[in-house]
Amino acid sequence: MKHLLSNLKIDINDKIYLKDPESSELGKRIISNSIELIDDIGFESFTFKKLGERIGSNESSVYRYFDSKHKLLLYLTSWYWAWLEYQLVFATTNISDTTNKLEKAIDILTRTIETDSTFKHIDEVTLNRVVINEYSKSYLTKVVDEENKEGYFSIYKRLVQRLHDMIMEVDASYPFPLSLASTVIEGSLHQHFLKNHFKSLTDCNDHIQPSEYFKHLVLKALNNNK
Q: Dihedral of CA 64/69/71/74: which sign?
């Protein structure tokens, strides 16, 4: 799978950026260091000035790639969902049993992320923490409807649709497949957040992973519908 992924480029909506950061070494440094800096200080405290200082470049150089830190966050989260989509597709393509395929999909979408050496300039483990902590800030805005129309969330929505389709393959009569699919993906971020910060609010811990909970939730829901 790593050989196949190495030949793929993560495609992000070009309306999100001014210049493709994958097109230059500076752009890649902006991406890798922005992930680390947001992880270190949080999105609220993150600024292009601080990022420029970190990479040893002018603040204006960052603005050549993104017109705001909001757009940068949209880029990072979109990249994460696209990367996760590739993981999902390659891990489930050859599974014929629909229940096993769905279980594998839930594993991929809700597991604790491990380092993927395919993309040298992006630390997926750190990016996963950024998505867990900051993703909601990319869409809880007054302009979410406008940005949705522009396709800024298309990769995330496509990922939900893929899981929806797998749920329907297991039980086409289940009445809430989109709600269940989006609950798994969004809920996984929440359970990982609780596991890391509010341990008394979740049963997930070092021994019980969110993937176990969501597989139980989904399969019980589908079995009870029969």
A: positive
Rounded to 5°, angle at Cα 208 from 82 and 188: 30
Residue-by-residue DSSP string for 53-65: HHHTS-HHHHHTT
CATH dotted code for 2-224: 1.10.357.10
Do the beta carbons of residue 35 and residue 77 sit within 8 Å? no
Alpha helices in the chain (DSSP H): 2-6, 25-41, 48-55, 59-63, 69-92, 98-110, 124-134, 144-149, 154-170, 177-197, 210-224
Domains of the chain: which residue ranges? 2-224
Q: Supply angle C-alpha 179, 219, 165, rounded to 5.
A: 50
Q: 71 near 17, Cβ under 8 Å?
A: yes
Rounded CA-CA distance 78/4 in Å is 20
Amino acid (one-letter) located at 200: S
> Which phi and psi (to 5°) does residue 100 adopt?
-65, -40
Residue 225: predicted pLDDT: 74
Judge if pTM exceeds 0.85.
yes
In this model, does residue 1 exceed pLDDT 60? no
> CA Rg, the chain, in Å?
18
